């Protein structure tokens, strides 16, 4: 009997929740021109940079894994893509507009003149580039996967990895250059789902091997970062992919499952879209109050980055129109708390 039972979804919710938490923490810590601007040798700066090989790659891994729950066939590509546009593009565009207008109003980073707002759906903007990149992957890989009748999964993974390793790149429009960088993780998620029974049968060996790879890549990344923190953690793509993929696989197979993980995961997409409004707002208030202690900024910023989007989610889902526009959820009006209208699995939310 296998030591671990992966099942249909494994611990994908736990991977999603962990990646979402890391994303919020990252934007609280910030960069030289944003957030708290914590710099090396602060340990949080080190962890934020090191886990750049996991945060957004993990979401791509989740997207590939969840994609396989209901993959399109050649005759169902159109409704599949329409569903993704409704679930991802529509709420993403609304969130981008809100963020751009707020940034411009308060003269913060990512300010945009009104005349440039029409470019938001076309080019990378703030952290919303991920939506463009993942939609591009759904289109390209969905088409190839449908044409090959879901029989080219390993081939897609190998090709994606090789393209990244040889330094292939794409244009910035629709974040195609970043979609290419995420393709190995997306296709690795597909492999993890479609070969999950093999993983179950060899769980002990897989976990041991993945642990060894993760420890090795973590040690190498740490040594290189300490030697020169100015070098991006993902400069060595083979090492970066080893770090991210091994950790995704370890969490999928071995992470303890929480009974409420799926309920909590339902908020992850909204947290991704609106967490910066909570983190930035908290930082501005604390700065006005003269609070500079990192020990206060970090927990309050993270708490606001989570609770503010959750409040938006709970308010928006009460009305069918706001549920569609803000959350991307199509539901019928209901006076009860019936959960049967809860949407299916998505990328950053547990269901879509």
Can you characterise this structure?
It is built from 14 helices and no strands. By secondary structure, the chain is mostly helical. It has one domain. The two termini are 33 Å apart. About 3% of the residues have low confidence.
Rg over CA atoms, rounded to whole Å, is 20 Å
Listing every helix as H and every strand as E from the N terminus to the C terminus, the arrangement reads HHHHHHHHHHHHHH
Helical residue percent? 55-70%
The biggest beta sheet is recorded as:
none
Question: Can you count the beta strands?
Answer: 0
> With helices defined by DSSP (H or I, 4 residues minimum), what is the helix count?
14
Q: How many domain regions?
A: 1
Instruction: Provide the structure class.
Output: mainly alpha
Span between termini: 33 Å
Shape: globular
Low-pLDDT segments, ≥5 res: 335-345
User: What percentage of amino acids are in beta strands?
Assistant: under 5%
Q: What is the mean pLDDT?
A: 88
Short structural summary:
With 352 residues, the chain is mostly helical.
Fill in the keyword field for this structure.
64% helix, 352 residues, 14 helices, globular
Give the helices and strands, then pairings.
Layout: H1 12-29, H2 43-50, H3 55-67, H4 77-105, H5 129-147, H6 153-165, H7 176-194, H8 196-201, H9 203-227, H10 237-254, H11 261-265, H12 268-288, H13 294-316, H14 320-327
Helix pairs in contact: 1-3, 1-12, 1-13, 3-7, 4-5, 4-12, 4-14, 5-7, 6-7, 7-10, 9-10, 12-13
């Amino acid at each position: 009997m296998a030591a671990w039972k992966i099942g249909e979804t494994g611990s994908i919710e736990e991977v999603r929740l962990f990646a979402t938490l890391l994303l919020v923490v990252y934007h609280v810590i910030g960069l030289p021109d944003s957030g708290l601007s914590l710099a090396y040798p602060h340990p949080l700066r080190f962890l934020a940079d090191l886990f750049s090989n996991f945060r957004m790659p993990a979401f791509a891994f989740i997207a590939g894994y969840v994609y396989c729950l209901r993959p399109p066939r050649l005759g169902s590509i159109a409704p599949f893509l329409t569903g993704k546009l409704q679930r991802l593009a529509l709420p993403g565009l609304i969130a981008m507009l809100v963020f751009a207008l707020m940034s411009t109003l308060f003269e913060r980073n990512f300010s945009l003149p009104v005349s440039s707002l029409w470019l938001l759906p076309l080019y990378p903007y703030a952290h919303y580039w991920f939506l463009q990149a993942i939609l591009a992957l759904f289109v390209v890989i969905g088409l190839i996967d449908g044409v090959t009748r879901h029989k080219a999964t390993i081939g897609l993974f190998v090709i994606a990895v090789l393209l990244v390793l040889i330094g292939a790149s794409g244009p910035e429009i629709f974040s195609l250059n970043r979609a290419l960088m995420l393709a190995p993780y997306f296709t690795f998620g597909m492999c993890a789902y479609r070969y999950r029974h093999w993983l179950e049968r060899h769980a002990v060996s897989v976990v041991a091997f993945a642990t060894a790879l993760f420890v090795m890549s973590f040690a190498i990344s740490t040594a290189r970062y300490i030697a020169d923190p100015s070098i991006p953690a993902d400069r060595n793509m083979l090492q970066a992919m080893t770090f991210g993929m091994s950790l995704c696989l370890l969490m999928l197979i071995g992470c303890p499952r929480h009974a409420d993980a799926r309920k909590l995961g339902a908020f992850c997409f909204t947290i991704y879209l609106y967490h910066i409004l909570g983190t930035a707002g908290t930082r501005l208030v604390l700065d006005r109050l003269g609070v500079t202690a990192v020990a206060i900024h970090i927990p309050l910023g993270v708490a606001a980055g989570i609770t503010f989007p959750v409040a938006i989610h709970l308010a928006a889902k009460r009305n069918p129109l706001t549920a569609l526009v803000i959350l991307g959820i199509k539901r019928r009006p209901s006076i009860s708390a019936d959960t049967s209208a809860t949407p299916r699995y998505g990328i950053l939310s547990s269901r879509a």
